[in-house]
Amino acid sequence: xxxxxxxxxxxxxxxxxxxxxxxxxxxxxxxxxxxxxxxxxxxxxxxxxxxxxxxxxxxxxxxxxxxxxxxxxxxxxxxxxxxxxxxxxxxxxxxx
Length: 96
What we know:
Shape: elongated
CATH class of the largest domain: Mainly Alpha
Helix content: 55-70%
Number of helices: 4
Strand content: under 5%
Number of strands: 0
Number of domains: 2
């Protein structure tokens, strides 16, 4: 089973910039950088959608830190609600 490599944001951006500055094909650039062509293609597509910036927004695909924090807080609220429901059920069982 293959292990997925992690690339820094700087490496991703440099790879896209290198491809755009060179007159080489996407395939040759990917081979030079020893990355899958599909990975380079994904970074290029992201850069095209984000004014030339390869924006890695994490697993949640958040546009900003504020959105990420909102999502984290919403998850925390859901977790607390779930815990509250469990406690209510436990109290109901104990009161019988």
